[in-house]
Amino acid sequence: MQVSDSTSRILAGLLEARTGQQLTLSRRWRIETALSALLRERHIATMDELITILVANKDTNLSDQVVEALLNNETYFFRDRTPFDMLEQEVLPRLHAARKDQRRLRVWSAGCSSGQEAYSIAMLLAENPAKWDGWTVDIIGTDVSQAVVERARKAHYSQFEVQRGLGIQQTIRWFRENENGWQANEALKRKVRFEQRNLLEPAPSGGPFDIVLCRNVLLYLNNERRRIAFDRIAEAIAEDGALLLGAGETVIGQTTRFEADPTARGIYRPSGVAEGQQPVRFGT
């Protein structure tokens, strides 16, 4: 199915208007793959017919479905294992010492997709029960897509999704197999809450958050929206909190609200200054 430049531009404009995310030229190859199932389901023969319906604005449910299909919801349990190792070895011990009096930890997984990242954090903490015994641990996952938020709440995953990142012992401990895949047990589901929220909107309630994971989300925002997203995170994170970004993301040249943690590569900390000011370096 041929996707013309004009069709690509219209769909990219719809996605950006509704979510703030850009469908860059390098990603427009996804359009046909992302929308083919929806076109079959709606008995729409061509992309031109789809655009005609969208432009006429007579089917708002269809535009919702198109936006949902175009979003990139790639995720898996303990994705790119290194960030979780850094959390376990560097960030969590520091926060455990700093919060020993309050005995409370708050975590926000922004752009959580179908929930694997948030559940990975819950499993990571639960696997060290002696350390976190008596603590109140709040984990929230948010995503712009209502469909993936609903999936996250159900916590039902295919065989492929479970095998992708989880070991046998973790699978057996936290999931039960059924004819359609694997269902997370209630003990794991109770550790996390989910809500639909755009990263460009105010942060969810429950902060300030000690850890914010916003991985592989900012890649899809333009510079101005990326700055807004950093502002939203900065407003919601604790003064000594930790921000984790994706491997291809950074705060350098993007915001003055955060700077690199000098002791943990890939971790960012609030700089304590407003946008446009120069950050004060740690240790000064």
From TrEMBL:
Residues 1-259 form the CheR-type methyltransferase domain. CDD domains: AdoMet_MTases (cd02440). It holds the Pfam family CheR. It comes from the Bacteria. PROSITE patterns: CHER. PANTHER family: CHEMOTAXIS PROTEIN METHYLTRANSFERASE (PTHR24422), CHEMOTAXIS PROTEIN METHYLTRANSFERASE 1 (PTHR24422:SF21). This is Protein-glutamate O-methyltransferase CheR. The lineage of its organism: Bacteria, Pseudomonadati, Pseudomonadota, Alphaproteobacteria, Sphingomonadales.
